[in-house]
């Protein structure tokens, strides 16, 4: 396909003409294989013989729900044997695995699809041959009675994401010519697999084979199998993950009949074909492919459809047994010495945190948390001195597999026995896998969850400060001399400044400063805690008693952030006008204050830069 | 296994006793299944009957090269049929796929391992039955002559990561009792698959079956198959990815003989057993499992080994067809309006960049770049207005699959036709997959590579500035009045300052300021560009003519960063002592300078904070 890539130059100015490489590839497949005229339209059922041999549609559905379509992707055709895997999955969920697995085997038969031979226990070899598929229809009829077909039709519709109809002419033709299947059905009743009225079972089966689908439908149905049973377009969970993996298993070992070994060897993507001309292929966690072209080869598989599958697998090296991934997905592993929270700490708190920074370890993970990833992380934990808190920063974790979730939860249990608190931050806990982690860990006292990393770090810092006897909010700081912005000023200068100000009190949640307002005063916090937040709600800093806020008024005429009281708060407000006058009278004090301001900004800049360097380290 | 997790409380203070969940699980498996005494030691070869039925070893090798071991994991036993997949892979690479695939089929036989039946073309059904394995040994002997066995022994050693020996007693016993295999071999010569002397071929085969391995060896050998043919412990590429995926295919369809369909259905991990009591299982991109317990079931598979495989698959839901991953791995998608480079820009440059910030789009990706991920990214590109530069920030990309690499390269080709430059940053281009991207893109003029994101952004910014007529380095800035640090000072004040300074010139690469030196002067850059770098070599800023450097001397007594000339540079140096004296004489100018410094620091802080906010956005 390589040759088919260069896009026409004339597009150079039409950005909308940009195509994803996959679309170009599928276009090229359609063009290259349209010329392929080998094979013949199935005619053992007269109605099938009426199909237009030139029809050719390709569709590929991704697991994020995007559907590529090329050619006659909306042309309807009868699903035929492509219904087998879906009805088997439906049977597993409807009647329970034990019931179904005791009636139908899972070993390849090595025979053609319409073989009448049964296995050693007189059961069908597997659900992909007619005998097994008829047995599935029979089982569903046992459970659903006369509503069985409607039950199946609606289920197939959920796989496809739309209501599916029936080709009555093909159905009539199927039942008129279905003697071999009748023979198979009576064999099954003879061996006790079918208890029901054979003709009623076969009506369900023949109707099921006559359901109309398109290449697009086939792609979405396959993608639902590739996506853990969740239809990626509608988001509906159609069948259980168990049913999906077992269905893909029989597709792998028996999906392409006596061509199965060759198929997994060469293409390596679970697939199912139908004599109607359809082929669907489901690559787990990747894609669903559907194609329609009625010319069949000697195995009863669509000639062009096979070529599309082979080309896709070869060009992108998608053989399911050819996976390579990296176990290392820890992208940062540091302690609060490297990245503190945005809470401004007073000197004695800083001292405690400085000497105990190793007690809070932060591990940032990315990508998908797989069995390998989480095991790797687990092994890293013991390597460093024991922290009291481990924060797992999961902002960049796109998803977690069931194996990863299980290992994660087991790891938290392990930590519980060492009195280590595990803190999750940034998890999107909506997915079913996260629910597993939750289930397993909600009983644990050592697991906490903070949406924001900074909150997690601040909480852990507070625990450390408490443990080592540092009070957090209690203290009142009334002495202006302790205000870093005023460091180095003389007693009278401080006294005069104090006399210029007014003591204000604010209740919890009250907005003290609002963005874009003119900046007309600055504040010295005496008690309580305030938050500085940017428009958009991002917290820039948490400020405790003894620190100034609104001090940027010394540089800017307008407020660039909100300041909100966390709890009831008292502060000394000094009007900018008074402050300016004070600086006029004491130029050296004014310079000193500016120097202090520059110093405070320089310290914050160093902290911010080290955070940026940490976050952007290669 | 869940019950087995709580770790003893007494460990609470012994951090070293912390175990990874996977180790606890394997310990529990060993304990739980040791009591299992069903099955019997193979005795069709007298020597095998001498094995201790109680031996039980488990080993699991991860794809990052860590090896778990439990029980008798170092107990040697003969490899027997476990040699078949590895010798098949070796044959594929040694003689070429066409040659091997024309002599040996890949369809399951449905027969026991020692079946004498051949397929329709009188060829062995597949390489996992004795007939196919003997054919493999014959093919290798064709290629390697009398050195064939040594060639095989050394290859097996590369899979295991150590030299492997032979159990001569078992070998003697095998050849003394190997009549059925002789019959098979003569059948193969009769059908032309073996051209060689049958006895010489069988000596190779019998010796190959008598090679001594341990559970640990088996795990590493399996992990090499799971890891694309690269031994995860030694890092050696033992066989090609093609040979690996095809070998895993036949293991999947035929690895467990007539139990194969059941095996993939229930366990879903490609595996191979041997009558010596070993079982190995290879889960692609995840792990290799090896177990040793000589008690065999009726299929000739180790009873405890099967239980271990089943428990591992069930407990961690590792069925290979039960994969779930998320396609979305774009974690940031922004333009330089949100995050500019660390180059300090002069006002006219700032204006150009402000009005064209959409021309440089930055897309940050994480985790493993798979088929799904890259396709998703490709589809996002057309969505926004067309940029001139797209920077792919790959710092957090752990690895890329071949499919991902291919799609990425194809996407760059597509961009080339739209005159969009693709810039890779932060790639570790060592892996074979990155070499594919390189191969495909080195011919393209629109792909550039920068190790550091900031360099990539700065380069793109420069292109934008050039395009819109803004000069970069050329200009000489001699006027102190244009120095932001001195903004607002009067003419005489500036003149006096100028008179205090000395004009210095530095050659490219010269270090002007060194970290930890006392800070005794500040500089005003008149021409050229300097870099400010932290001790770790991290670039903090790039400074162009018209800006100050070393100005932090006004706050700190020591230098906290290096400043190095990028090119030949001229600057006005003002000694701190002189500067302090100047400020003594002009307190208001001094205050103004401090205010300017605070203003500059505030601007940098805002930039740094917005970068932190961008990088930590959930």
UniProtKB/TrEMBL annotation, chains A, B:
GO terms for biological process: glutamate biosynthetic process; L-glutamine catabolic process. Signal peptide: none annotated. Its EC number is 3.5.1.2. Residues 350-460 form the STAS domain. Keywords: Acetylation, Hydrolase. Pfam families: cNMP_binding, Glutaminase, STAS. It is an enzyme of class 3 (hydrolase). One of its GO terms (molecular function) is glutaminase activity. Residues 485-603 form the Cyclic nucleotide-binding domain. It catalyses: L-glutamine + H2O = L-glutamate + NH4(+). Substrate binds at residues 81, 130, 174, 181, 205, 257, 275. Homotetramer. This is Glutaminase. The lineage of its organism: Bacteria, Pseudomonadati, Pseudomonadota, Alphaproteobacteria, Hyphomicrobiales. The gene is glsA.
């Amino acid at each position: 396909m390589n040759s088919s890539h260069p896009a026409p130059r004339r597009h150079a100015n039409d950005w909308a003409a940009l195509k994803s490489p996959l679309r170009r590839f599928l276009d090229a497949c359609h063009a290259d294989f349209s010329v392929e005229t080998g094979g013949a339209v199935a005619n053992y059922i007269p109605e099938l013989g009426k199909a237009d041999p030139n029809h050719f549609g390709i569709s590929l559905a991704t697991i994020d729900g995007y559907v590529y379509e090329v050619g006659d992707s909306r042309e309807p055709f009868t699903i035929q044997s492509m219904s087998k895997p879906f009805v088997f999955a439906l049977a597993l969920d409807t009647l329970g695995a034990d019931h179904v697995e005791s009636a139908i085997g899972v070993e390849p038969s090595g025979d053609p699809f319409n073989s009448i031979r049964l296995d050693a226990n007189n059961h069908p070899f597997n659900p992909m041959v007619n005998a097994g598929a008829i047995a599935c229809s029979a089982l569903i009829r046992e459970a659903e009675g006369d509503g069985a077909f409607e039950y199946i039709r609606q289920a197939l519709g959920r796989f496809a994401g739309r209501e599916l109809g029936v080709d009555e002419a093909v159905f009539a033709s199927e039942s008129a010519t279905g003697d071999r299947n009748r023979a198979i059905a009576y064999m099954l009743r003879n061996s006790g697999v079918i208890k029901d009225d054979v003709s009623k079972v076969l009506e369900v089966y023949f109707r099921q084979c006559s359901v109309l689908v398109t290449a697009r439908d086939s792609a979405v149905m396959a993608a639902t199998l590739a996506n853990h049973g969740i239809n990626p377009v509608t988001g509906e969970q159609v069948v259980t993950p168990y049913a999906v993996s077992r269905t893909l298993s029989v597709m792998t070992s028996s999906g392409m009949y006596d061509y199965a070994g060759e198929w997994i060897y060469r293409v390596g993507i679970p697939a199912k074909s139908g004599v109607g001309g359809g082929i669907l292929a489901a690559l787990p966690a990747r894609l669903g492919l559907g194609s329609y072209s009625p010319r069949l080869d000697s195995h009863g598989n669509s000639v062009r459809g096979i070529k599309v599958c082979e080309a896709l697998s070869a060009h992108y090296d998608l053989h399911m047994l050819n996976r390579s991934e990296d176990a290392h997905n820890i992208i940062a592993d540091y302690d609060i010495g490297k990245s503190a929270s945005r809470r401004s700490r007073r000197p004695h708190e800083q001292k405690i945190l400085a000497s105990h920074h190793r007690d809070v370890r932060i591990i940032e993970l990315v990508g998908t948390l797989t069995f390998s990833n989480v095991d790797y992380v687990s092994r890293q934990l013991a390597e460093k001195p024991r922290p009291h808190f481990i924060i797992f920063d999961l902002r960049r974790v796109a998803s977690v597999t069931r194996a990863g979730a299980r290992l994660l939860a087991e790891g938290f249990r392990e930590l519980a026995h060492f009195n280590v608190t595990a803190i999750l931050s940034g998890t999107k806990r909506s997915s079913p896998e996260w629910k597993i982690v939750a289930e397993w860990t909600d009983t644990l006292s050592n697991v906490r969850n903070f949406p924001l990393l900074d909150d997690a770090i601040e909480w852990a810092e507070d625990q450390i400060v408490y443990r080592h006897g540092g009070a957090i909010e209690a203290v009142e700081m009334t002495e202006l001399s302790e205000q870093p912005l005023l460091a180095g000023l003389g007693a009278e200068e401080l006294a005069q400044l104090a006399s210029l100000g007014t003591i204000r009190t604010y209740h919890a949640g009250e907005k003290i400063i609002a963005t874009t307002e003119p900046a007309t005063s600055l504040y010295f916090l005496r008690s309580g805690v305030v938050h500085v937040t940017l428009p958009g709600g991002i917290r820039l800093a948490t400020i405790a008693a003894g620190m100034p806020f609104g001090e940027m008024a010394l540089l800017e005429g307008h407020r660039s952030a909100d300041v909100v009281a966390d709890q009831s708060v008292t502060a000394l407000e000094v009007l900018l006008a008074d402050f300016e006058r004070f600086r006029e009278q004491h130029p050296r004090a004014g310079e000193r204050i500016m120097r202090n301001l520059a110093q405070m900004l320089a310290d914050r800049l160093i902290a911010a830069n080290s955070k940026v360097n940490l976050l952007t380290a290669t």
